[in-house]
Amino acid sequence: MAEIPERKKRRMGDRRGMETKHPTTSTKWPLIKSKQNLQITRLKDTDLFTVQNFFTSAESKAFIKAAESIGFVHQGSLGPTKGEAYRDNDRISVNDPVLAETIWKSGVHKLFSDIKIRGKVAVGLNSNIRFYRYKVGQRFGRHIDESVDLGEGKRTHYTLLIYLSGGFKLKAKNDTSSPKDSSSEPLVGGETVFYGSRNAVVAEVAPTEGMALLHIHGDKCMLHEGRNVTKGVKYVVRSDVAFA
């Protein structure tokens, strides 16, 4: 894939003009348990880390069910020739401060207790919560995530992704689901890949059900992409960590 000119990269985050807002008053979101003993894996020399089992399997499946009940809307892009990343996925965007605060207080706040940016500390999540669905053949090309001014002195500096689906996990003894059940079909592909200088791969994160991925965005955001899904369905919930 041809390298995209530097001056155009900043236009490759979410296209705000294309956002589809859905009312949340009738949406009953799943309960989220408070997270203890979070397993954090930090990538050396980067502002990127993952957290295994941030959502339980039950929570992940419940969020997929809730999102599907709302209904996804397809989102594309004009493509690299127009200064935008290639994009082909399905999306829901909701403005829900309560959901954002619930996810934040369930454990995200613990991950940022010792992280400061320009003397500012993390204070919560962007209330704009997005759900992404990638079916077979869909992907999100190389892009960066922009920092967003939320007003009242708050600005986003980190992207939060929580994978709601992933490859097979070991089945519990009492799990009687059939291997042919579409809900148990393993996800193949859909890795989130980060690039450094000269397009060298810095990190390749395979989606795992319930895992959270956090990375700095804005001026220091690494070029990254969501690879093509070749089997199963990739579900992701995304927000941004705000600092003040």
TrEMBL record:
UniProt subcellular location: Endoplasmic reticulum membrane
Membrane topology summary: Single-pass type II membrane protein
PROSITE patterns named among the record's database cross-references: FE2OG_OXY
Region Disordered, annotated ranges: 1-27
Main location: endoplasmic reticulum
Oxidoreductase among keywords: yes
CC cofactor: L-ascorbate
Keyword Hydrolase among UniProt keywords: no
GO terms assigned for molecular function: iron ion binding; L-ascorbic acid binding; procollagen-proline 4-dioxygenase activity
Catalytic activity: L-prolyl-[collagen] + 2-oxoglutarate + O2 = trans-4-hydroxy-L-prolyl-[collagen] + succinate + CO2
Record key words, sorted: Dioxygenase, Iron, Metal-binding, Oxidoreductase, Signal-anchor, Transmembrane
Leader peptide range in chain numbering: none
One annotated Gene Ontology cellular component of this protein: endoplasmic reticulum membrane
Span of domain Fe2OG dioxygenase: 124-244
Superkingdom per UniProt: Eukaryota
Stored PANTHER family: PROLYL 4-HYDROXYLASE ALPHA SUBUNIT, PROLYL 4-HYDROXYLASE ALPHA SUBUNIT DOMAIN-CONTAINING PROTEIN
Protein name (Swiss-Prot/TrEMBL): Fe2OG dioxygenase domain-containing protein
Lineage, uppermost ranks: Eukaryota, Viridiplantae, Streptophyta, Embryophyta, Tracheophyta
